[in-house]
Amino acid sequence: MDKQPNASAKTKEVQPHPQADTQLHHICFCPNAHGALNIHPIGLTTFLLFLIIISSCNGQPSKDTLEVEAYSSYNNTSLPTNIFLTNQKTNYEKIINEAQEIIGLPNTDIEIETTNEFGAFSVINRLSQRRFFVYSPAFFDSVYSVTNTNFAIMSICFHELAHQYYRHPLKPNNASHIYEKQADTYSGYQMCLSHATLEQALLAIQNFGTEQETETHPDKASRIAAITSGYINARIKVFHDTTYREIYKTLKSNELMFALYDTKSMEEIESMSYSKDTVAAYTKKVFKKSKTKQLYTLYGELIYFTNDNKINLYTNNKVIGKILPTSNATEKMLSLDGVQFHLENNIITSVNPDGSKLEVGQKLLK
Ligand SMILES: [Zn+2]
To answer: What is the pTM of this model?
Structure first.
């Protein structure tokens, strides 16, 4: 989170960028910016029609430059008072829109814009006080090339949207570390509800967070803990909302409870709020415990396979199903209580009567 110092109120919002490609990128056509226009007689009608169109948008600013009133960002990149917009159309916009739809607020008034300032930003502009999601395609390209998944982009989108929904850019910037963690927690929460794994939810911050805290942003470890806590809170909420809620034993062996399992009573676990310290231990503990067995999750349970093709619960070693013989070595069919599941590429999916598949579990990576 950062805030720009107040500039003169007389400053115009629109300052056409001298290098901007006006023909390609102007949202509102401006004849002056083009200098001489070649008007052929045959194009006169078209030109007159064009004049009518531009007269309808007269008075509306073009978007070559955005004057920044306040902003929050994904990492500690700072923005100048005026940022040049590049008006690029990219596939990332789809992901941003999808993130908005997932959180139930499609078609909001948040405008999506591109810039060459490296990063992703939630901006409030000075003149109209509108909200902007501003990003550099080069930044998202980097995120994708390092992580190889759109989930990493998505996690950044949730982070930025959280800044807007919490109105962080408009709040005093002396609490920016808190705002950043709040945005990270929100991102983790939404990533869980978007069926991303915890690992996918953390990919962007692992690669683009800073080891040491900065003036505006917490250190990477704190941000990982914040994302993890949001992710776990969502998992617990979803878990409580399912029919499994009544089955105490199932709740006890839920994968996310697992980290806290042998240090706290169930009463404590159910009443506690998950601090960063408790949740940060989650990954380590599960991996440590599973050293001798390859664990998979299935509906939040931890399971493992035995050499004689049995499927066992990790918590009590009880046999709950078997692996069916298949001709294909890369996939497995799992049978549990008469219900079949498909295991391929480390993902367990349900085998539904209508042919659809739903991810219900996965291999735990060591
Ligand atoms: Zn941020």
So the answer is: 0.54
